[in-house]
Amino acid sequence: MSETIASSTNSGTKCHHNPQVSCGDCRLNAICLPISLHIDDIDRLDEIIQRGRPLQKGEHLYRANEPFQSVYAVRSGTIKAVNITNDGQEQVTGFYLPGEILGMDGIANNRYTNSAVALETAAVCEIPFSRLEDLSIQLPTLQRHFFQLMSKEITSDQQLITLLSKNSAEERIAALLLSISTRNHNRHLSATSFRLPMSRADIGNYLGLTIETVSRVLSRFQKNDLLSVDKKEINILDMDGLKRVANVEPSCADQ
């Protein structure tokens, strides 16, 4: 569920929705870029990146079965990946936070297998894949980093399958909260106090639970002093206790 991504080096410049911010200035550059890239190489990567207008809540970044052309880095906001099942039901397959890359599901067959939908106002960097391939050949560090991203995507999918097939509702929700906690920490945000960008319905859909179960488990966590919950605002009161619920060793640094 969680991703091990490089910690940020610095930059007080905030990207948010500003399409004029370059990779070198972006506060997320050490998360979605290999930190060993030389500044000149970052400039070469920046030349191929396209930054359009922000997506509004509910707007599609791309749709399933559309031709694959680009991968995307989230600059601000949150995007969910969804798949439509054979019976026409929507299945949430992932949540992407700032600094994370999506769209790699389209590489295999040159068509996106999922749709990507903004959960809130969101800005993205579009990276045309054909130009990224050419640049990766010239910059081995960039190529290796992209391979690592694809490996993490596979690992995340495998972890989700394991989570849905074996774990209880409490374990699933605890694991998701710990994942968001870790990803916030990697962006130099609070690991214990954050706002859930997704609805209870999206959480339930993603974890294979009903909305009622999600709400009941969060209430139980609050009653047991693991969390304080105020609508979408989450404050983790007992991190080790939450890790125990998720079957993660309290001494582990990563979820």
Report on the architecture of this protein:
This protein is an alpha+beta fold and 255 residues long. The chain folds into two domains: 130 residues, Sandwich (Jelly Rolls), CATH 2.60.120; 80 residues, Winged helix-like DNA-binding domain superfamily/Winged helix DNA-binding domain (Arc Repressor Mutant, subunit A, Orthogonal Bundle), CATH 1.10.10. The chain is 38% helix and 19% strand. It has eight helices and eleven strands. The strands form three sheets. The chain has a four-stranded antiparallel sheet. It has a four-stranded antiparallel sheet with strand order 2-7-4-5. It has a three-stranded antiparallel sheet with strand order 9-11-10. Strand 4 and strand 5 form a beta hairpin.
Q: Give start-end ranges of low-pLDDT stretches.
A: 1-17, 251-255
Tally the beta strands: 11
Rg over C-alpha atoms, rounded to the nearest angstrom: 18 Å
The CATH class of the largest domain turns out to be Mainly Beta
The CATH architecture of the largest domain would be Sandwich
**Strand-and-helix sequence, N→C?**
HHEEEEEEEEHHHEHHEEH
In percent, how much strand structure appears in the residues?
Answer: 15-25%
First-residue to last-residue Cα separation: 8 Å
Structural class: alpha+beta
Q: What is the average of the pLDDT values?
A: 79
Largest beta-sheet characterization: 4 strands, antiparallel
How many alpha or pi helices? 8
Q: Give the number of domains.
A: 2
Portion of residues within helices: 25-40%
Give the CATH topology of the largest domain.
Jelly Rolls
